[in-house]
Amino acid sequence: MTAALVAGLLAGYGVALPVGAVGAYLVALTARTSLRTGAWAALGVATADLVYALVAVCGGAALAPALRPVTQPLRLGSALVLIALAAYVATTAVRRYRAGRDDDAADKPATSAGRAYLGMWGMTMMNPLTIVYFTALVLGRQAATAPKGADQAVFVAAVFVASASWQLVLAGSGAVLGRLLTGSRGRLATALASGTLIAVLALRLLIAAV
Question: What's this model's pTM, rounded to 2 decimal places?
Answer without folding.
Answer: 0.66
